[in-house]
Every structure is written in structure tokens, then in C-alpha cells.
Design goal:
Radius of gyration: 30 Å
Protein name: GTPase Obg
Structural class: alpha/beta
Subunit structure: Monomer.
CATH superfamily of the largest domain: P-loop containing nucleotide triphosphate hydrolases
Number of domains: 2
Strand content: 15-25%
Distance between the termini: 64 Å
Largest sheet: 6 strands, mixed
Cofactor: Mg(2+)
Strand order of the largest sheet: 10-11-9-12-13-14
Order of helices and strands: EEEEEEEEEHEEHEHHEHEHEE
Number of helices: 6
Pfam families: GTP1_OBG (PF01018), MMR_HSR1 (PF01926)
Enzyme class: hydrolase
Length: 359
């Protein structure tokens, strides 16, 4: 079962109570207070981990509560802090405060994490309350309550390239041909209802992640069909590989179908519509597919590839084009990151302010 949305109740552990205690020694009849502080409660943390691919494991447990800190002891012994409670999620998970709707963090990479339920601070022992006028305090801190709230988790699949197109355009077949992924394949709409990921090996250790995304139809930007489910996941991809079926079984026109999907992308998100796109006419084994490719290229002024997942025609060209586009984008991202890197100044050098030199 694939689950990409879930709501959870989280609560940090309460802080342990402080201790009321007094020294009891044979030759110290009036020993002072020696109550230790309570330990801090554990926090609830959402963390992106490598071995998770969807949110299904979280559907069986809706409430996550960290343990409380231990109470303080005598002889100024502090209570132990409780361990944090980790909620493992896949990279690409967006964490929101459910009631406020604000994003707490977008967990893009493995190791990214956010504290969603802060543990309570441990209470003070009576030693803390001793004063010159109160040498035997019996006050203590009860420990703070842990933070609690409802959170919503939303997974957006992260892939280098995403296959888009009308249902039955051949996306699942292409993914299974290029990788070891085994998506469900059949000749009816919406075979793919969940994103499927595959690793496409290029040469040596070089590879990219390819996602087969649910089919898109007219009205998707308003949620028709699997619209919002599709569009949410495609936002994460660097490159769009747009498959156009030359002879749709419903009798629709290939060129118009291409225009329809481009329109839906623009209606949902302009940044999404502006992603680099590689257009491919699928099912090259069908007679007349070459003519459809030429018409698409001419009417839309596009560079269109022709390929077949059945015969293998054009697959190497498609993989090469996708790999090169991804490499170009990564290089541009690295150059942009380098331009934005702040200038570092040595702290050992003097700072000049006017004519004065500060040591």
C-alpha cells in the first residue's frame, strides 16, 4: 500500500519533577537542601531516512508520545533526560502544523529532521530555592509539560526525471524497460495510481532516478481524475519526459493532447510548466507514428524524439537526452550555489572603522 498523506498527534515528554531532599550526615545535624533537578522530557522528531519510501507504516500508529524525564534525586542527583522519539519518513516529506497550516520543514535529504513536539524542561530541585532567609526550602519545580499538536505529513516523490502524459501513453512500459521497476501495466486508464520509481543506469556508476507518475487528463489542475495527486509529485522532478501516444484509443488527437497537458501544468503552477521538457512520441512500432512525430514538431516548433518501449527504438537517445539535461541542470545549480556563498572574512584580521583599528 502506498500512502503519501497522513496526520499524527505528537506530544513531547513531560519534564521530571525536582526533588525535595536534605543532607543527612552524622556530624551535620542541619544539612542543607540537596534535591536534584528533574530530567528533560524526550522530544518527538520527524526525520528523513534512507530506507523509507512512503508513509504507509505510519497509518497504524496515530499517536506518538515521547517519554518523560526522570525525577531528581537526593544528594543533588539530577534525573536522567528521556530519549527523543523519532518518526522515520521518506526524503521529500513536507511537515506541517495541521491546525495552523504552516510548513514546519521540508525534509528533502536523508538526515533532515524537525522537532514537532518539544520535550518539557525538568523541574528544579529544592536546592535551587534556598536563600539566606529560607535555608530549608520545600519548594520544587514540577517540570514543564511537553509540547503537543497535530501534524500533517505530505510526501512529494523526489526524482531526477518524471514521466508525464495522458493515461496509456506508455509511461509504465518505458519505466520497466529502462529500469528494474515493475509497475502495473495494462491497457486501461489510470493503471498507475501511485508514483513508481526506477533507477536508470547510464554507464559505470552514473544513473538517474526516473518516476512514472499517475496519468494526467483535462481538468487535473482542478483535481479531476488523479490531477492533484499527479501534480503534487511532479513538482519535485528536475526534468519532464512528456510521452505522447500517436494514436490514442479514445480517438483524440495527439497534438491536442500535448497542448492539454501543457495547459494543466500552467494552470497548476507556472514554475512547474517552466521545467525542462523532453517530448517523445511513444509506440514507434505503430505504422504512421513517424508522421505524428513530424506533425507535432512542425505545429508546436518542438524537438521531438520517437521511441518504442517494445522494440527498443530510440531508447538510447531518450536516455542520453535526459541524462545530459540533468547534468546541465546540476551544473547550473552548483554554479548558482557558488555565487550565493557568503564571503568569509578572517576573524584574526583587524576590523577598520574609519581611521581606527580595532584589535
Amino acid at each position: 500500500m502506498f500512502v503519501d498523506r497522513v496526520e499524527l498527534f505528537v506530544r513531547g515528554g513531560d519534564g521530571g519533577r525536582g526533588m525535595v531532599s536534605f543532607r543527612r550526615e552524622k556530624y551535620v545535624p542541619r544539612g542543607g537542601p540537596d534535591g536534584g533537578d528533574g530530567g528533560d522530557g524526550g522530544s518527538v522528531i520527524v526525520r528523513a531516512v534512507a530506507n523509507a519510501d512512503n508513509l504507509a507504516p505510519l497509518t497504524t500508529k496515530k499517536h506518538w508520545k515521547a517519554k518523560p524525564g526522570e525525577p531528581g534525586g537526593g544528594s543533588l542527583c539530577a534525573g536522567k533526560d528521556a530519549h527523543d522519539l523519532i518518526i522515520p519518513v521518506p526524503p521529500g516529506t513536507i511537515v506541517r502544523d495541521r491546525d495552523r497550516g504552516n510548513i514546519l520543514k521540508d525534509l528533502v535529504n536523508v538526515g533532515d529532521e524537525v522537532t514537532v513536539g518539544q520535550g518539557g524542561k525538568g523541574g528544579r530541585g529544592n536546592k535551587y530555592y534556598a536563600t539566606s532567609t529560607n535555608r530549608t526550602p520545600r519548594q520544587f519545580g514540577p517540570g514543564d509539560d511537553g509540547e503537543e499538536r497535530w501534524i500533517s505529513l505530505e510526501l512529494k516523490v523526489i526524482a531526477d526525471a518524471g514521466l508525464i502524459g495522458f493515461p496509456n501513453a506508455g509511461k509504465s512500459t518505458l519505466l520497466s524497460r529502462l529500469s528494474r521497476a515493475t509497475p502495473e501495466i495494462a491497457d486501461y486508464p489510470f493503471t498507475t495510481k501511485i508514483p513508481n520509481l526506477g533507477i536508470v543506469n547510464i554507464s559505470g556508476d552514473a544513473a538517474f532516478v526516473l518516476a512514472d507518475l499517475p496519468g494526467l487528463i483535462e481538468g487535473a489542475a482542478q483535481g479531476v481524475g488523479l490531477g492533484h495527486e499527479f501534480l503534487r509529485h511532479v513538482e519535485r522532478t528536475r526534468v519532464l519526459v512528456h510521452l505522447v501516444e500517436p494514436f490514442p484509443t479514445d480517438g483524440s488527437d495527439a497534438v491536442q493532447n500535448y497542448r492539454t497537458i501543457r495547459k494543466e501544468l500552467s494552470l497548476y503552477s507556472m514554475p512547474l510548466a517552466e521545467k525542462p521538457e523532453i517530448v517523445c512520441v511513444s509506440k514507434a512500432e505503430l505504422t504512421g507514428s513517424e508522421e505524428v512525430k513530424e506533425r507535432l514538431a512542425k505545429e508546436l516548433n518542438l524537438d521531438v524524439l520517437l521511441m518504442s518501449s517494445v522494440t527498443g527504438q530510440g531508447l538510447a537517445q531518450v536516455v542520453g537526452r535526459v541524462a545530459q539535461t540533468i547534468a546541465d541542470l546540476k551544473r547550473e545549480e552548483a554554479e548558482e550555489a557558488a555565487r550565493r556563498k557568503p564571503i568569509e572574512f578572517s576573524t584574526e584580521k583587524a576590523i577598520r572603522t574609519g581611521d581606527e583599528v580595532l584589535p
